[in-house]
Design brief:
The chain is mainly β. It is built from one helix and eight strands, in the order ββββββαββ. Strand 1 (18-26) and strand 2 form a beta hairpin.
Length: 114
Amino acid sequence: MGDETSVRLAISMSRGVGTVAGVALLNGKPLGSLMVVLVPEDPENHSSRFRRDQSATDGTFTLPTIVPASIRCWPSRRLESEMGQRRCSEPYLAGGEVVEVVPNGKCQVKVNAQ
């Protein structure tokens, strides 16, 4: 069995998960078809916590079962498959809305597309 590799396992426990819901805006008006991305505080070590959804025609979105944490939420008109990955999201992080997700809570946000 000469192929020994180390495995890194991280377990997170919480009393519940939260929901982030809101409206994606462009120039102050609700807009559909925007990609809404949730980026964890430490994206390098929590890549599994990225979440994304596309806003509905009225600009609304809902992202359920979010692990409680401080996250950034932002919408984008860019819909490429790499959205939500660190290298693609870095330019947007500064303008994202900081959201505190709490166990069994529902955060309501209005986020502006960049």
